[in-house]
Design goal:
single chain, 330 residues, alpha/beta, four-stranded parallel beta sheet, 10 helices
């Protein structure tokens, strides 16, 4: 199979629609990461997502819809606070989990009675979703456990020969996956942190819980259980106040012929002052946007990536630290 990277236009959208209607997968851009899209109504199509990625079959998927799609056709109840959050932040990097009507394939939610739904803000994603006009199941368009893709080339590098089309929407501006919010209870509860922060949610609805995983419980959201976002080289993560230890490891590795790079934000880069730096940038937004790109650049250059956590740990950095910790998990 030949994999084509195509600009988003009438030709590529028509080709993508034909593939989706025939239970095939297509990669498309969102503002967070690129997604691997399939018809959420089709068992065969949804199962192919898991096969292409090598994804564990107990790891649920998110359904993507365009901004005018009838959400009530997919979920049984939308609480008032979810409507308030949708008005404030959608389209955008916020996934909300509702009680499912069971209209999509059972393989989307991996046996759960809930459905995670998202309305991406990326212009190309909206064009694609409107053109298809179906609920689209879509995890990140990469090999399972590898670093999530934020460019069409990243998708191609992972899935060349496995899918026919990658719709090219440029580099993703958000850079980490959406916040996942459980909206099945009396108040919202964050299952996975992302660009829509706890503080942002509380500003709109007053309160927000944060879920703590329970041993043996079924996975309730993507990104909760398994090693994720991992580069193809060794990694180690240090806290910000351990930057001296990180620098010492960097020096020892390079002295012993192991090509090491330090992954950190701009402030930390200036403190450690070493040559091989994967600089994530200065602001929270830059750090989130650049995280996966730098991890992919790092795996192409380094034998060993030494990550140093940002000094700031709240807001968007909660989501960044979630990804960074999983990326460096042994």
């Amino acid at each position: 199979m030949q994999t084509l990277i195509l600009p988003i236009d009438e030709f590529s959208l028509e080709k993508s629609k034909n593939l989706i209607q025939n239970d095939k997968c297509v990669a498309f851009p969102t503002e967070t990461v690129y997604g691997l899209a399939a018809n959420a109504f089709s068992d065969e199509a949804v199962k192919s997502i898991f096969e292409i990625k090598g994804r564990p079959t107990d790891n649920p998927l998110i359904v993507h819809i365009h901004k005018d799609y009838d959400l009530s056709s997919l979920v049984s109840f939308i609480p008032e606070y979810a409507k308030m959050l949708a008005k404030a932040y959608l389209p955008g990097p916020l996934t909300m989990v509702y009680k499912s009507k069971g209209t999509v394939s059972k393989f989307v939610s991996c046996g759960l009675d809930t459905l995670a739904v998202r309305i991406p803000s990326h212009k190309g994603a909206q064009e694609f979703l409107k053109y298809i006009n179906l609920p689209i199941a879509a995890p990140s368009a990469n090999v399972s456990k590898h670093v999530s893709p934020v460019t069409a080339e990243h998708v191609f590098n992972d899935l060349n020969g496995k899918i026919e089309v990658v719709l090219d929407g440029g580099k993703c501006s958000g850079g980490i996956e959406s916040t996942v919010l459980d909206c099945t209870g009396n108040e919202p509860c964050i299952l996975r942190s992302g660009l829509i922060t706890k503080e942002m949610i509380e500003k709109v609805v007053g309160s927000c819980l944060v879920y703590t995983p329970v041993e043996g419980e079924k996975v309730r959201s993507p990104g909760m259980k398994y090693k994720h976002y991992s580069p193809k080289c060794q990694t180690e993560l240090f806290l910000f106040d351990e930057y001296d230890k990180a620098k010492e490891l960097y020096i020892n590795k390079n002295k012993n012929g192991v090509k090491a790079y330090i992954l950190c934000d701009d402030e930390t880069a200036n403190i450690v002052g070493v040559e091989n730096i994967l600089n994530l940038g200065k602001t929270e937004e830059e750090i989130a946007m650049n995280l996966y790109d730098m991890l992919r650049i790092g795996e192409s250059k380094a034998d060993f990536i030494i990550a140093i956590a940002p000094k700031k740990q709240d807001g968007v950095m909660v989501g960044v630290m979630n990804r960074l910790t999983k990326a460096c998990k042994s």
